[in-house]
Structures are given as structure tokens and as C-alpha cells.
């Protein structure tokens, strides 16, 4: 399916220059002279190379047609992650590099969406929001109102995020897994 250059979003998989590319970052730029464009940083799914490309609004690019299948994460063995198809109970092994930053949110027996291009897996999507317990939270320094009023905290999965000062260890929080930010109390 062809999409316009301005419709490109992070996380999309594009079929560009006869390779599959995952969009890592985008930045809309409007220079003083000339037309606006999208600066797109992409990473090749097959070999891991990076590519920076400019797309104008008139440019079109092919969005890869992916098939999503619900799967369950079973276990990790080195850098290999084993998933089970919920319908056929078939197990597949996926390299942990495919998950990137999403790997920290993965836990055993978790339901995820694995996207396939043909028969090869190209991405694993964890739930958008997840619940974790705060196991360690720094003390808040009173009178620090000029700076941000968030403090670092460690979650039960080992991830570190910024939380409001009123949260203490033992409380449950909801985290946005796309960027690792605090959403609210659970």
C-alpha cells in the first residue's frame, strides 16, 4: 500500500529500495526557503543498517503489508526469545535485537502481537500500557520546585522511569511502553 511521505510514523515497516525498513524517528522540517519535508531515520530489518532519508509530501513510499498474529512469550535462551502461536501452538524463535527498546517490558507468559512479512517475523508489539510495581524510589528533595518535580524509580522488571514525588516503593503504576513514561497509579 502506497502512503504519502507525511503519513510516515515511528514503528512503521516500509518496503523501500527493495528492503524492509523500520522507521525509528521522524522529524517534520519546514525550512525558510523551499517546501516542507519529513526527515526519516530508518533501520533495515535484515542487516541492521541505518538510513536517513527525506520525504516530501508529494513523495510516496510503499508500506509493507504485515500479518499480525497473537502469540505468547515463553522464555529466553541467550539472545533467542521463544514465542508460541496461540492458535496452532507452534513455537518460533526470534532474535532479541528485533525488539529493541521493547525488550525491557517483556515478561514470561505475556500476550504479544508478532507481525510477519510472509513467513518471517519482523516486529513484536508489547501492550501499549502495562502495570508494574515500584521496588525502589529515591527520596524527594523539598524546595526543588524550579526543576522538574519527578524522581527516578526502579520497577519490578528492572526498568528505570521518572515518577511523581508522591509515589513510594511498593505502589503499582501504569507505564506507557512506547516511551517508558509514567501514566498513572494502578
Layout of secondary structure:
Elements lengths: L1 E3 L8 E4 L2 E11 L7 E8 L5 E7 L3 E4 L3 E11 L2 E6 L5 E5 L15 E7 L2 E6 L3 E9 L13 E5 L4 E4 L8 E5 L4 E5 L1
Antiparallel strand pairs: 1-6, 2-3, 2-6, 3-4, 4-5, 7-8, 7-10, 8-9, 10-11, 12-13, 12-15, 13-14, 15-16
Task: Give structural attributes.
single chain, mainly beta, OB fold (Dihydrolipoamide Acetyltransferase, E2P)
Which bin fits the share of residues in helices? under 10%
Largest sheet: 6 strands, antiparallel
> How many runs of DSSP E, i.e. beta strands?
16
In order across it, which strands form the biggest sheet? Answer: 1-6-2-3-4-5
Report the CATH topology name of the largest domain. SH3 type barrels
Beta content: over 45%
Structural class: mainly beta
Low-confidence stretches: none
Average per-residue pLDDT, rounded, comes to 89
- Report Rg: 20 Å
**CATH-scheme architecture of the largest domain:** Roll
| Topology pattern, helix = H, strand = E | EEEEEEEEEEEEEEEE
Q: What is the terminal-to-terminal distance?
A: 39 Å
Number of domains: 3
The number of distinct helices, counting runs of at least 4 residues, comes to 0
* Shape designation: flat
Structure write-up:
- The protein has 186 residues and is an all-beta fold.
- It folds into three domains: 62 residues, SH3 type barrels, CATH 2.30.30; 59 residues, OB fold (Dihydrolipoamide Acetyltransferase, E2P) (Beta Barrel); 57 residues, OB fold (Dihydrolipoamide Acetyltransferase, E2P), CATH 2.40.50.
- The chain is 0% helix and 54% strand.
